[in-house]
């Protein structure tokens, strides 16, 4: 059922507001102010990235424990707050806190998922959000963030030696990302319907046309990091069919990654997939089987921190019910243009080796924001128009000018961009893989030397997380090669 607020807004450009509708708009502000009790002051008069600035600054200095203490409490909601804490705990080497935060984030995400469609639907009708800003809405993590949540839960299970638990997380990650994609599609449909209903489609189109576009490459949409890890675990389990499928999914996203291509060819050869192997060899060269008795080393490297969303203000113009052209301003999030960087390299037994790119997290973040932007713009325009009508309504009979001043100030300072995102994720992930003799080997990266002990006919996974001059490593032995 459409809300009274929506009915009032729908007639904005076609008729003057009746006393009843003015009363409704006045109520919007009052309810919004009351609703702020459930929203941090930061979310009302500032935004998430501003609140995260101290924690990010400490993390970029390598002070990860202090960065955890500086996290803004409650600023992102249960899911986002715990995801931020989990990654900083990983970088601090605090496994217990990392596991705890991941579990809490997962529980909160499960609870949220059961209500997600309702929350998205109410986003265009919610009185509190139309009276304040999008920070009043529950944060719904995009699919790439949920993918990383489960990727780190995979790591958590592997650290406990639980391969089956890790595989369950892999399967959950795929399903949850599909569900999140459907939810975004639902939000886009609702945004289009709401824009049409309120006669603001042209305004929305004008704003979006000026908005910086994200990459539409597959790497901005899908996560080869998760696909490759999934394939690696399936292979360790002995499920070569699923491993081949996910190696090829990863290869579709990062076609220039020769380590992924080699893994796909190896499984194709083992399974006797002659036609698939020929296709792969045409592009990547002849497949060379590993020497008998050799050991496999897989190195996953995360480095840096993903970019934070910034806020900017864009002007737009509308014609009011009296035919007057009015200028307004929207507060929207965006990502600054970042320079792409090459993956790190490292030394193995004194020889320099190359890493191949596996995931560009900045590209994923930009794509997710662009997907969410139509809904954000629709809500912003409706909110600005509602606040403006309230201001004019109060000003009309405000002899003292106090009410007009208060609403004017409130409208200006409460319009804040929604800059919420998982800001402690790595900027990128890279891969190295090789078959070498069993025994001890030394790997040197970013000033740290790590010893790995390889077992014949087995795969050893070395997982490195790097940021701010610090390297956190975990290694474990998986299944056969």
Compact overview of the structure:
This protein is α+β, with helices and mostly antiparallel strands.
Structure description:
The protein is an alpha+beta fold and 481 residues long. It has a single domain (46-480), classed as Serine Threonine Protein Phosphatase 5, Tetratricopeptide repeat, CATH 1.25.40.10. Helices cover 54% and strands 17% of the residues. It contains 19 helices and eleven strands. It has helices at 4-10, 19-35, 41-45, 48-60, 64-69, 77-92, 95-113, 116-122, 127-131, 143-159, 163-197, 201-209, 218-221, 224-237, 240-253, 258-271, 274-284, 361-396, 402-414; strands spanning 295-303, 310-319, 325-334, 346-348, 351-353, 356-360, 428-436, 439-445, 448-454, 458-467, 470-480. It has a five-stranded mixed beta sheet with strand order 6-7-1-10-11. A four-stranded antiparallel beta sheet has the order 5-4-8-9, with no helix packed on it. Strands 2-3 form a two-stranded antiparallel ribbon. Helix 8 packs parallel to helix 11 and helix 15 (240-253) packs antiparallel against helix 16 (258-271). The longest helix has 36 residues, at 361-396. It is elongated. The termini are far apart.
């Amino acid at each position: 059922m459409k809300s009274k607020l929506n009915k009032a807004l729908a007639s904005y450009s076609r008729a003057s507001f009746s006393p009843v509708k003015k009363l409704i708009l006045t109520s919007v502000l009052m309810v919004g102010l009351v609703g702020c009790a459930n929203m941090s002051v930061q979310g009302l008069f500032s935004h998430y990235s501003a609140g995260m600035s101290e924690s990010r600054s400490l993390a970029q200095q390598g002070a990860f424990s202090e960065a955890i203490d500086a996290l803004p409490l409650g600023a992102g909601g249960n899911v986002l707050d715990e995801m931020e804490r989990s990654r900083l705990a990983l970088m601090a080497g605090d496994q217990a806190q990392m596991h705890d935060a991941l579990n809490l984030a997962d529980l909160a995400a499960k609870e949220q998922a059961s209500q997600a469609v309702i929350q998205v639907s109410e986003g265009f009708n919610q009185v509190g959000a139309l009276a304040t800003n999008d920070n009043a809405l529950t944060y719904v993590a995009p699919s790439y963030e949920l993918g990383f949540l489960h990727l780190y839960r995979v790591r958590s299970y592997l650290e406990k030696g639980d391969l089956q638990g890790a595989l369950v997380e892999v399967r959950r990650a795929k399903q949850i990302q599909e569900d999140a994609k459907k939810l975004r599609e639902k939000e886009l449909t609702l945004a289009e319907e709401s824009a049409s209903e309120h006669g603001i489609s042209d305004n929305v189109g004008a704003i979006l046309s000026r908005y910086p576009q994200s990459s539409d490459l597959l790497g901005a949409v899908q996560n080869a990091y998760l696909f490759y890890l999934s394939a690696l675990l399936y292979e360790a389990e002995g499920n070569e069919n699923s491993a081949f499928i996910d190696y090829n999914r990863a290869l579709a996203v990062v076609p220039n990654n020769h380590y992924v291509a080699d893994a796909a060819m190896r499984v194709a050869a083992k399974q006797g997939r002659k036609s698939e192997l020929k296709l792969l060899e045409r592009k990547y060269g002849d497949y060379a089987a590993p020497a008998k008795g050799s050991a496999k080393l897989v190195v996953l490297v995360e480095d840096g921190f993903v970019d934070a969303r910034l806020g900017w203000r864009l002007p737009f113009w509308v014609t009011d019910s009296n035919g007057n052209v009015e200028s307004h301003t929207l507060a929207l999030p965006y990502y600054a243009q970042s320079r792409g960087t090459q993956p790190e390299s490292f030394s193995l037994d004194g020889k320099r080796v190359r890493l191949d790119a596996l995931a560009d997290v900045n590209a994923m973040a930009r794509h997710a924001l662009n997907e969410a932007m139509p809904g954000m713009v629709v809500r912003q325009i409706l909110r600005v128009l509602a606040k403006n009508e309230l201001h004019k309504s109060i000003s009309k009979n405000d002899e003292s000018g106090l009410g007009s001043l208060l609403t004017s100030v409130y409208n200006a300072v409460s319009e804040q961009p929604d800059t919420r995102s998982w800001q402690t994720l790595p900027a990128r992930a890279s891969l190295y893989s090789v078959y070498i003799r069993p025994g001890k080997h030394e790997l040197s990266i970013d000033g740290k030397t790590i010893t790995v002990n390889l077992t014949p006919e087995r795969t050893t996974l070395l997982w490195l997380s790097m940021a701010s001059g610090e390297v956190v490593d975990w290694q474990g032995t998986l299944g056969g090669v």
